[in-house]
Amino acid sequence: MFIRNCLPSLLYRLNVPFFLILAWVVVFQLLRCIFFGYQYFSGNADTPTVLLQSAWHGLSMDLSMASYLMLLPTLLLSFTARKWLWYLRGMLYYSYFISLIVSLIVTADLEVFKAWHFRLDTTPLYFLEHPNEAFASASSSPLLLLLFILLILITLISLFQAKIIKHLLVSFEPSSPWLTPLLFLFITATLIIPIRGGLGLAPMNQSRVYYSSDNFANQLAVNATWNFFSSAVKGTGRKNNPFISMSPEVAHTRLNSLRPVSSGIVQIIEPKQKINVLLIIWESLTAKVVSSLGGLPGITPNFDSLTRQGVLFTNLYASGDRSPKGIVAILSGYPAQPTTSIISFPTKTASLSSLPRTLKEHGYQNSFYYGGETEFANIKSYLLQHGFDRIIDHNNFASSEKNSKWGAHDHIVFNRLLVDLNSQKTPFFTTLFTLSSHEPFEVPEKTAIPGQDIEHKFLNSLHYTDASLGNFIRQAQTKPWWRNTLIVIVADHGHPLPKTASDRSSEFRIPMLWLGGPVEQKGIKVDTLGSQTDLAATLLDQLGYDSTGFSWSNGLLRKGRIPYAFYSFNNGFGWVRPRGTLVYDNIGKREVESSGNLNPNDKETGKAYLQSLFGDYLKR
What we know:
Main location: membrane
Binding site for substrate: 438
Transmembrane segments: 12-38, 58-79, 91-110, 143-162, 182-202
Shape: globular
Structural class: alpha/beta
Membrane topology: Multi-pass membrane protein
Largest sheet: 9 strands, mixed
Domain Sulfatase N-terminal: 276-545
């Protein structure tokens, strides 16, 4: 009887998180309208129709932020079975505090975007360390207007929240002292779903709300409060370089010694006008499984066969150990950082040069194919920033085609690409990113390499992707566009498996193969040492386009180039020269591995490279 009597009051308490989350979503949508209006009258927005689209696409991030704000209040409802006056008072103070914080962020965001064209993150906090610069920066802002907006927002949001809280809590009645905590512990746990943006693999990030090639439309969809706290957690505002080991002048001199003026290039493709480019980024394709590079036999037979039809680069190293870092290294020629990933920060990636953006300036149609979620690790925001006109991802495949944990398997994506390229406008720059050789190494076909341990599953997944690639190339060779299409196959990164070598550098060595109609010299190998980051400049050199903006990309076919490769992992880096390699631990500040005949000057040059790279990253 007691439980029956308490049940209505217990269920009534569910109104608190539901209606307060809804209230915050409404507030965030109205704040988006204010942001649009401010930018519209500042000349940064041109059409009101984008507001509706951005409001819809930004709804999931609004819900995520609202759920964050209600985590603690929902949890505390567990203790309101008998007494709740303390909860009413606490919620009012909490709502006033949150209203103040949100209003401050939103008001600052108005002027930050107007001046810098990116949403507020923790970068402006750097100016607090330099009051003179902060005052100088703020002096041109309409401070009185911003102060007025701030006061209005604080007042209206606080009153709105307080009214809802009082209305909800005034009707509280006693509830079950043991069912109440159980229920609200459960409800608190379920808030992780809207906080993450759903049940998908990728948690909430800016890519979830990006939907357009128009930067303002994407920025309008972003929730300012979510964006600020996300950057605070990630540490965007960091301005100190932890890798300084020498003066900037010495580091700059050492870096420049790696960049001599080129005396020309070796041309390996027929210099046709506007040749198409198809870039295939192969998940986890380590050189250790490619027999034509001395790796295990029988894992990638199709790739090995194709090396006789094109140009194989045999001495290439991945820049990092994760796909997001590899994508930026390939498309922007920008090296991976040890302790962070630039793709997490759209403000920084917007400043990078890229192959799709450069080729678009020359009339290319850009598209990106991936069977999984491009929102993962913020990849989608980078792709949209850099001029990909079409993105084909898991949203474009039927449910029956998505039989992998990550999405659609590789043969399905290759088949889709083959169909689409037959009607693709030319010239095109198309990128396909495979996924089946990612953990958990699922394949949709009969096992070719038996074994239930993780290594054999990995090898089997690579064998499957190799078969999918081989089938695609055989069909592509019969298409009219093949004669005028350069195909570049490269890995996003290497892999610790298989355990066929003990040195760290072997985990980063990857293959790269160029083939297709425009390739003049077939069946040759380029043994020059290089990095994944060098692909961008190499491709632009071959196409006859300017690569000046790709300062970290060292064209592999330039005459007189200095051969080297840099790679980074979790707070460490590797430095590879023709005469040897070293692996350096940034935390212990010591070499943990070396081979060959490197001298102390090589180690200092590697440290100078990292210092300069991270300094460049911080400035972006």
